[in-house]
Structure to design on (250 residues):
């Protein structure tokens, strides 16, 4: 058990780094790491992933907010709309087998990767704040994904904030972390009603992820968003291929 907790440290750092850099993607790696490297059952892994990523996102959001890179009003509205969706997604999670969840997760990763690779230059931004009618549906849909897959949804939140709501990328990353913290908290509360947590692994994982998230914001200041987006997309494809290979061959 102690060995598994120590193994979680480098992966926690990597996941936190992704959160700090691009405002999402942490739980895409957290769930496979918890299942295949740390030996956690799928349902427990989705619960622990929400704790790890939600905690790191909360600290990362506070760090971004300190330098003015969080749109609090949009983030709170998005997160509030996502909370009921997370509860619905969690209920659906309990009705589906672990292998089906992971295969569906792989498909979602490929769709997200394609969207990121097709994304063009950052669109012009404006001072008008997104309206509730614009933000709420995107938040609700993201919440459903959060609860069902045990993921934070940042890979959906950031493109939605940039492409649909017109936020600059730097502001979208920090705002995404606030949304992730809110939706992960709601989904975690629902998961705890029927799931369990290995607190040694989860706390070690979360501590490393927090350190990575703080470092990621600083690294992101010197790396181009376009390069980060491409690297992130290729990483999603690699994880998706791994999940398909493992679960189809079983």
């Amino acid at each position: 058990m102690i060995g598994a907790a120590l193994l979680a440290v480098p992966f926690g750092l990597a996941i936190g780094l992704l959160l700090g850099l691009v405002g999402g993607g942490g739980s895409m790696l957290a769930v496979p790491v918890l299942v295949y490297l740390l030996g956690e059952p799928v349902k427990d892994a989705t619960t622990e992933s929400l704790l790890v990523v939600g905690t790191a996102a909360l600290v990362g959001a506070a760090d971004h907010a300190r330098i003015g890179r969080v749109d609090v009003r949009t983030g709170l509205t998005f997160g509030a709309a996502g909370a009921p969706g997370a509860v619905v997604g969690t209920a659906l999670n309990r009705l589906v087998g672990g292998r089906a969840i992971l295969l569906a997760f792989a498909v979602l990763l490929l769709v997200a990767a394609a969207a990121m690779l097709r994304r063009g230059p950052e669109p012009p931004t404006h001072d008008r704040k997104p309206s509730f009618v614009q933000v709420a549906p995107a938040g609700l849909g993201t919440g459903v994904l959060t609860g069902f897959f045990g993921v934070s949804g940042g890979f959906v939140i950031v493109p939605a904030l940039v492409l649909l709501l017109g936020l600059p990328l730097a502001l979208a990353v920090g705002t995404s972390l606030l949304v992730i913290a809110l939706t992960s908290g709601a989904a975690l509360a629902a998961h705890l009603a029927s799931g369990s947590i290995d607190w040694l692994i989860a706390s070690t994982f979360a501590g490393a992820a927090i350190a990575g998230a703080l470092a990621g914001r600083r690294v992101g200041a010197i790396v181009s968003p376009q390069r980060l987006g491409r690297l992130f997309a290729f990483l999603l494809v690699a994880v998706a291929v791994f999940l398909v290979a493992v679960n189809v061959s079983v």
About this structure: The mean pLDDT is 82. Residues 152 and 180 are 5 Å apart (CA to CA). The two ends are 26 Å apart (CA to CA).
